[in-house]
Design goal:
The chain has nine helices and seven strands; from the N terminus they run E-H-E-E-H-H-E-H-H-E-H-E-H-H-H-E. By secondary structure, the protein is of the alpha/beta class. It has one domain (3-181, 213-241): 3-Layer(aba) Sandwich (Rossmann fold), CATH 3.40.50. Strand 5 (130-134), helix 6 (147-167) and strand 6 (173-179) form a beta-alpha-beta unit. Helix 1 packs across helix 9 (213-224) and helix 4 runs parallel beside helix 6. It is globular. The termini are far apart.
Length: 250
Amino acid sequence: MTKVAVITGSSGGIGLALVKTFLADGYFVLGLDRDPSKSTMSEAYAEIEVDLLMFSKDPSYRDSVLGNIKERLPHKVNKFVLINNAAEQILKSVADIQWQDWEKSFAVNTVAPFFFVQGLTEELIASSGHVINISSIHAKLTKTKFSCYSASKSALEALTRSLALELSPLGVSVNAIAPAAISTEMLKASFNDKPKKLLELESYHPSASIGTPAQVALLVKTITDQQGGFLTGAVLEFNGGIAGRLHDPS
């Protein structure tokens, strides 16, 4: 059985965990990233350098990327998984946000996932495949300076539901997961000069912890292992229980 996973944002913390998890289960993995890791972790792993802003805006560039993906696929694919994991997180106050910030946020976080699904629909249908969109807790619960990011992730969740309506009757499952804080190197680096704040962040979660990239990858893998197609159009929260907690004064 030939299994294929196409993963965007494959060089980041969650992306690398996804790559390793699917490789461990015998998948051929295609990693797409603006800055490929240049890894030779497996003969079953290949990387493609992709600028997702260009992918969203330029039809000829998009066709080239999709063609490159299809040329690398095995001749016979029995299971096809597309994971839209890449993200652009622009943090600016309302006064500072420019058009380019909106354009880049939506191009990477919302429009590119749509065009990957559109461009790979044939492969998804042929194998009764899975699409997993990586959303964020910020789609529903956010904070200051996250306007572009939270809006684009909310749109991604709406897109997930819309795609499921059209593709599920064709055998394709389309779902999203919405993680809260995940202990990527990027997140940990932001607390280098304030380690107590990282502990405080953990304590805010009822789980008394933050998630790990490996846990996110395992959840994604579990979803794509589902058979029958009944799990579709869903957004699964992965947030340590923080979405159920009020922070009102006691």
